[in-house]
Amino acid sequence: MAEVRDIEIRDAAGTAAAAAQNAGLADDLQDMSGEKMVLNMGPSHPSTHGVLRIVLELDGETITKAMPDVGYLHRGDEKIAENMTYTQFIPYTDRLDYLAPLANNVAYALAVEKLLGIDKELPLRCQYIRTICVELARISSHLLGIGCFAMDVGAMTVFLHTFTEREKIYNLCEALTGARFTTTYTRIGGVSRDTPPGWCAAVEKFLDEVLVNIDETETLLTRNRIWVDRTRDVGVISKEDAIDYGLTGPNLRASGVEFDLRKDQPYLIYNELKFEIPIGSVGDCYDRYLVRMEEMRQSVKLIRQCLAKIPGGFDNASREPVNVSDGKIVLPSKGKVMTSMEELIHHFINVTQGINAPPGEVYFGHENPKGELGFYINSKGGGTPNRLKIRAPSFVNLSILPHLLPGHMMSDTVAILGSFDFVMGECDR
Amino acid sequence: MTALELAEKLKAQFGDLIAGPAEFRGEIALRVLDSDQIAHVCGFAKIKLGFNYLVDVSSVDNYGDDPRFTVVYHLYGIEHRCYLRLKTDVSEEKCEVPTVTGIWRTADWHEREIYDMMGIRFTDHPDLRRILMWEGYPYFPLRKDFPLAGKSSDMPDIAFSRPAPLEGGPFVTVAGGKDTISREPRVRIPETDSVELNNRIERRDDVRKAHGESFGPGPKEHKS
Question: Rounded CA gap, A308 and A274, in Å?
Answer without folding.
Answer: 13
